[in-house]
Structures are given as structure tokens and as C-alpha cells.
Design brief:
elongated
Length: 262
Amino acid sequence: MGTLTHLFNILLYQPLFNFLILLYDYLPGHDFGIAVIFLTVSIKLIFYPIGAQAIRSQKTLSELQPKIQEVQNKYKNDREKQAKAMMELYKEEKINPFSGCLPLLIQLPILIALYRVFWKGLSPEELSLLYSFVPRPGMINASFLGIVDLSKSTVTLINNNSSLLWPNVILVLLAGITQFIQTKMVTPKTSKAAAKDGQMNQFSGMLQKQMLYFFPVVTVFFLWKLPSALALYWVVTTVFTILQQYFLYRPRQGNKVAEIKS
């Protein structure tokens, strides 16, 4: 466990912490929130190819929903044949149904590292972990535009009866709203006829609706108790993903011309 913790600190915590302080030092205005935004965008750009591939797989899965529902209805009384037919369909279409989980698996350790950065990294003792080429900033003002205290969680501000509560509340709620939009964009659309056709389709549609609201609610619940810098990170990374999905989901001009001609 000690070796894993050491590797985690060397490979994730320290690089992210040093990069954040470097941004804080050199960006005009020394705004901690702006530094968090630049850090988030940098992380998203580094993992852009993986994220784009996951979005393309989600798009393909969404377009395959009619065929998937057809397989589910055909083998609704035989789970083994249904699973086999589904795997054959995925193989035929050359997609991996689990590829969408890869960005989540990558993002989880980064989130844990950022949690440590925002929770402990602002204390003077942690500045000893700075690389030699990173200037020591002294006291860090963990505010965003002078109105959001990114070092505090919303629940902490509530307990302290802070007058600066509402900007943090709005930031957390904005994280939930953007998560809803992002989830809505990748939720496969099911026709009313297909939704009524068979218990499997009804269950699938109900599950999709539940997940559509489940993720935003869980996002707000967890961010409510974490430093608000994580909420800002979540908002920026979700907005970045929404833009990615928009451009990757948008039909190409050639496809539109082909549809008009047909």
C-alpha cells in the first residue's frame, strides 16, 4: 500500500499540484479559479483522443438501438442466445460496448489526486512538494473572480453560516445541470412504438430515464461535500465534453446532402 501511495503521489498528485501552482503564479491576476480552468482544459486536451473515441462508440451504440432492441425481442426468453447475438452484433459493427467506461476509469484517479490538491495542497506545508523550477507563491488566495471560495465545500459554508454561500451553491448546481445535459446528449432515443413493444424495451427505456436523472443528482450530492474547486473542475470538464459530443454527433455536410438527395 505504501508503494502504491508513493507512486500515486509521484505520478499524479505532485505533477497536478505543481502545474496548478505554476498556472497560479504566471497567469495574469493570480486567480485560483482561472488556474483551475486552465488545468482542467489541459487535462481534457491531453486525453482528447481517448474521450473522442469513447464518444464515437457511444454514438454508434445509440445508432444501433433499433438492431439491439430487435435482438432483445427476438431472444427475450433465452438470455444465453440474446447475449451471444449481441456480441455478434457488436463484432459485426466493430464496436466495443465497454469503451465508454475508459474515460471514467482514467478520470477517477485524476479526481482523487485533484481532491487531495484542493483539500491539502493549499496548506503552506505542501509547498515543500514544489519542483525546483516552480516559484513559491506564499499565501494562496483560493477564490474565483473574488466571489467563490474554492477551498471550501458548500456544506462547510452552510455550517459556518457564511455570507459567501450562494456562489458555491450555484457552482455545485451548475455541475449537476451540465451533467444532465451531457447525459441527455448520449441517451439513445427510443421510438414510442419500440418502447411499447416488449417488456425488455420498457425496462431499458425506464432504466435510461432513471440514469438521466441519477447521475446529476449523485454529482450534486458528492460535490456538495467536497471543495468547490472540484465543482469548478467538474463544470469545465463537462462543458468540454458537451462541446466534444456536439461536434462529433453533428452530421457532416456530405451526409446532409445525401439525405436531401435521397
